Amino acid sequence: MAFSPTSRGTDAELPADRPLSDRDRGRILAVLLAVIFMSLVGVSIVNVALPSIQHDLGAERSDMQWVLSGYALTFGVILVAAGRAGDILGRGGFFLVGVGVFTAASVAAGLAPDAHWLNAARLAQGIGSGLLNPQGLGMIQQHFRGAERGRAFGLLGTAVGFSVAIGPVLGGVLIQFGGPDLGWRLTFLVNVPIGIGAILLGMAWFPRPLFHPTPAGLWRALDPMGAVLLALAILAVLWPFMESGGSVRTWGLLPVAGALLWLWVRWERRQARLGRSPMVDLRIFRTRSFTNGSLVMALYFLGMTSIWVLVALYLQQGEGKSAFESGLVGIPAALLSAWAANWAGRRVGRWGRAIVIWGLVLALAGLAASIAVVVAAQRHGLSVWWLLVTLSLIGLAQGAVISPNQTLTLEEVPLDYAGSSGAVMQTGQRIGTSVGIAMITAAVFAVLAVSGWPVAVTVGFTLIGLVILAALVVAIKDQRQRTRDRNRPAG
Question: What GO cellular component entries does it have (predicted)?
């Protein structure tokens, strides 16, 4: 059953701010892709730069942890509220505000005199990403229809794949060029020209008005109480997984998160019952495509994002490879992910969830083949560079899962809630990523305490495979429901 509130309908009747030509839509998409590419390159570059940052700033290990987790924390907390604000006040304007915040924070990070300053800048970068990301998804929903939307999400997946591929390599080049003191600063400052260019082009090319006229009852429409409750719930979920060696009190935040989430649901239902504008209209979860697709995405990120962490740890600590060499292992996979995302985006309208299903099957095959390579490397002296081949299967899987699943998940969501609904899906991704990396790496290090890297990687990849298998079950269930709906007699 599709959710369709009375204010605006779905695909066939989605209004745009003004009629847009193919050239206009192409320009909008170019700006969106450039910025998302910039933000993702910024994430992968930082992973390579951490040793240089620690040496130059004399930072503690906990400081380095927050260089990564602080960004993810503010990003996840702000997503849904930012998406709803863009729905009401204008996605284009909020997107450019997010770019501005991210760019300014990149300058602050690049000039950071100490670790505390750097971590504050990373928190601000997370806010910028949280502001711009849901607007990007919402603008694709708003300005692209049908097959064009699938192709747009496919190009988005291509940008994601290229960013994953080029980030570690670009980081290595910048650090080598700038040296241990300047190099890591360049990994942040490289965002600045892209951000400034995107702001200028966005102001020239985005439809007017960038911000919608302020509606009556704006404060109530933004649902500040719902925003605060959900932000606190997400914070309570993420914090224990980002605090290494957290105390019992820290893990006690998880039941608090459950209570806050229950209060948020009650509040949002009350808002709808009183005829007010909730931050997230919970009726979207009656739409099976949205609920199933969001669950597939959360499970996928719960498992698959840990692969590259484990591969980097195994190659560097277990096989003695350099950070640059471990980054090279992922390049074929990332490039194939970019190609597969574009390929799948052009065909998702025809084949639907079947593309996602076969992508998940391919991911399971890649995991099994990678385990075989690691075991054979220990027992038979097989070169670990065979991982270039097995991880390429995982790259193909990523392209076949993420972009098509986004298209299918959001296809029946009304435009009024495009930003906040996309942000709900992205929040599931962020929570899945944080929880998955924390739990799977903890299991790997527990095995390392009593065994070697081949056994630890096998355990880690097996856990990831179980999570992906759960995502596959949900995707197959969704496909069967879609088939029954298509075959059901009208009336």
Answer: membrane
